[in-house]
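Chain X:
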Amino acid sequence: MLYPRRGSALVTGGAGFVGSHLCRRLVERGQRVVCLDNLATGRTENVRHLLDHPGFTLLLADVTEDWEVTEPLEAVFHLASAASPSDYLRMPLETLEAGSAGTRNALACARAHGARFVLTSTSEVYGDPREHPQRETYWGHVNPIGPRSVYDEAKRYAESLTTAHHRTLGTDTGIARVFNTYGPGMRMDDGRMIPTFLRQALKGEPITVTGSGNQTRSICYVDDTVEGLLALADSDTADPVNIGSEEEVSVLNLADYIRVLSGSRSEVSFVDRPEDDPHYRRPDISRAMRVLGWAPVVHLGEGLRRTLAHVLDREVFPDRQGTIPQQGRNGRTNHDDRGALPGLGRGHHP
């Protein structure tokens, strides 16, 4: 059942990529927002357009340390954590602390205010999955001591702590297992696949695809991800819910798509795959559709066009050649955003 919440909300990690979009959307819904961030990976630039809004407060603090929100809260969204491999490999201890001490502090805040707590977990809790697509009942296949474990295990612990709070203390909690998300506002040095491919294509550099490129990802546009988080906050479900797109694409086809879309002459260069890199990734979103009434609406091609347009509006690429495909009368590109360009079909499986 959905219970629309319109009171004040705390967003930890609110100056990050997804967090800043969530803050904007909450303000648009008429809610007061406290954005807590230490700017380790977030940026003031992401929320600059909200700084003068009377319903928005930026609280510079580390979620793992002592902090306090005095105004009444109806919802607490816990997003604070490094999320890209380049960031959490650079800050392994901080990432583990965000998932443990940070989650504990955010839960304590939610409990003190009687607020709904929403944990943004991750599809990484499934590891390199042996089930495809991944349902919330799947326990995962994770290397607990591999290089990615600082992120994977931090989120798995955060889920366990959140569930224990709910079962033991009756805290009102929800867990969103967020799959790969992309869109305007990603750092070009983020290290994740889409901003890396965009930067390389626009600079005319080789587009680096790991392994054979046959590994697949399902990538959700950020506006859809945010709507999923809001739907979870407005519900009373405590069970984990997958939030992601069912559009599955191989890494190689995605690189080709971005190259064509950006008008780039870059060639694809194959590099070694990182350790424990998942082979396949696609959510089963049946529970989200049934419990939350949520499903993504922005197709991959359209979302990438919007993302590219945003990048070109804010970044300078003097050597860039080619132009973005123009929109047609329906507001979409003159390519079919689900298949006319390479890579928008299902991924390939053995």
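Chain Y:
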Amino acid sequence: MNKKIGFTCAYTPVPLIEAAGFSPFRIFPDSKAPDQAGHLLHDNLCPHVKKVLDRALADDLPELDGLIFINSCDSMRRLADAWHEAKPDDPIILVDLPSGTNSLSLDFLSKEYERLAKTLFRWNNEPFSIKKIKDKIDNWNLVAASVKKIEKKMSRDYFPGYASGLQQIINTAATESTDKALAMAQKELQPEEPAKAGLAPVFLFGNLLFDPKVFDLFEEWNVHVTASDFCTTSRFITPVDTTADDNIFRALASSYMEQTPCARTMDTAKPGDIAQKIVQRAKKSNARGVIGFTLKFCDPYLARIPMIRQALQKESIPFLMLEGDCTMGSMGQQQTRIEAFTEMLGV
């Protein structure tokens, strides 16, 4: 049985986990575990964080040999604290994530990634190896390249089931192995004739949307997902430019911080950068509209939405904002609004 390392954030480099001899296991908030997180955390807190903690409290997780928490927001920091209380025997590492993207921030994050790598190798009693890390990064980049090819096809034409199939590949990379995800990407989504279904081409963005069934629902509701940017979709499969720096950890830091940013990250020189990148992704994917989906109580995203809305309006791109709580039920409640939005797009 493979040793597994649990994690909760897209800024966690899976190649470091695999290089140390572990399998990755991203803890998705997809459990029916009873609501117990309120015993340790405030009720008005990110539902992602609470449901992950509910899984721990209900023992609804595989055996984990350690956990990685990224200090990406206050809720995630509180999750690390609560996990320590709930599971005091679990090995935990908390990786600090800078909020900016300048040179000093990259230096800091590279040192944090190096600390993470050395910790993982130590947890598995393995000798530290830069070569193993580089080999796993090369493998990871093959998955990233395959994902980009699939996304490029989706941006040009509508292929039924491609959006959910792509999510299954990404989830496999997050919860099983890079090798298995790569095999799926190369075999399961073979070229085929696009369908002429008259669906509305829409770009999706937000913080968390991980269930493949949700993407099937979007197709039922007249949405052709041309591309998406969530911490559980393409933002998670971040290609690593190993030529960016001689220091592999700085190359990792640069690659992760230069992708489309999570709402908690801001380039102080370009404070509206997240909005412009969403506009660019929407245009590049040939979308006629944009749907944003965020979790309740996610203050970083709620603070960014006005600038995103304004940037899309400036480009005359219709925008629909949705909010939910990680459950399929909350998605079902949005059906009428989504179908009305696609009708407005005139497809």
